[in-house]
Amino acid sequence: MNLLNNELLDSFIRIQKALYSLMKEDADRAGLTVVQLKALYKIHRSPNTGLRELAASLKLTNSTMSGVVDRLVSSGLLEREISTADRRAITLKLTEDGEQKLQEATGDDSSFTKRIMEITKMDPEDKDHLLRIHQQIMTILTTKEENHS
Amino acid sequence: MNLLNNELLDSFIRIQKALYSLMKEDADRAGLTVVQLKALYKIHRSPNTGLRELAASLKLTNSTMSGVVDRLVSSGLLEREISTADRRAITLKLTEDGEQKLQEATGDDSSFTKRIMEITKMDPEDKDHLLRIHQQIMTILTTKEENHS
DNA sequence: CATAAATAGTTGGTATGCGAACTATTAACA
DNA sequence: TGTTAATAGTTCGCATACCAACTATTTATG
């Protein structure tokens, strides 16, 4: 049996890739990477956030986040300042350019936004069923195994 | 509305991460990376395969695959030879060490294998329903949008 | 208060992962 | 047959992405 060639697995991978492709379409339009777009989006919604908070919300490590932020600052899309309250911390907010890029990516032409809206309109019963089965799968995937010894 | 904080989206991301964690557990046990483990697994099942074929089956570009293979050859887990039939092509097969590492990762202790087996035993009706809804979502995600102009 | 411990970010090293440009070989065709 | 196409891999530059080690600052504790 080919473990890596499983109908269910493939289904999850396909959707994962499709979602990423849509985000990439938006990001490309604005000359951004997907993770850069996500970062701008998050900071736009929570200005003056710190690095750790941002990293946590995007499920990245601080070191990865630090690099992403650094490149966004270099490109002039992000403003990074030392927090006055805690001189170890930084505060992040978009520059004018950053706001504009974000708008380019997430505006009316956004493929991702449109499709997510479509999916939101899905039959609630189907959605509940889906989430329920996903939960079953998550339980199987994350349950600590018993010892057969 | 926070597009990146969607119940369904999060559900997919969670499962994706859980699957990856399980594979990583197996890979770590053998001192491999996840993609290295996948590569060894595929080559074990289809010895003497070429680079392009391997890249396609793992949904990676040739350039990425080339690097992964190169590091596996350097670690002595993979044998790379020039094909006698086509001198442009290479043939790949596991070394003794490679076979052993693969066994370490996918043997009886494999978390991934166990869980996939568990999932396979899922209620067929639930599984069908899941695949059907996934298909609906895929259709939404990949359908070319109509012009409202 | 002074030192230890915790916290916020950064940096260095390695491994994906991609696209583009490249080499070498084989196939196609004028 | 000889030039052009296509094909198989590799290499380069860049951006994630992780961990471990580091600096700087703040908090906790003797």
TrEMBL record, chains A, B:
List UniProt keywords, sorted A-Z.
Answer: DNA-binding, Transcription, Transcription regulation
Which residue intervals define the domain HTH marR-type in the entry? 5-139
Cross-referenced Pfam families:
MarR
Q: GO MF terms on file?
A: DNA binding; DNA-binding transcription factor activity
Q: Does the keyword Transcription apply?
A: yes
Q: Tell me one GO biological process term.
A: response to stress
Query: What PANTHER family does UniProt report for this protein, alphabetically?
Result: HTH-TYPE TRANSCRIPTIONAL REPRESSOR YETL, TRANSCRIPTIONAL REGULATOR, MARR FAMILY
What is the protein's given name? DNA-binding transcriptional regulator, MarR family
Its source organism is Fictibacillus solisalsi
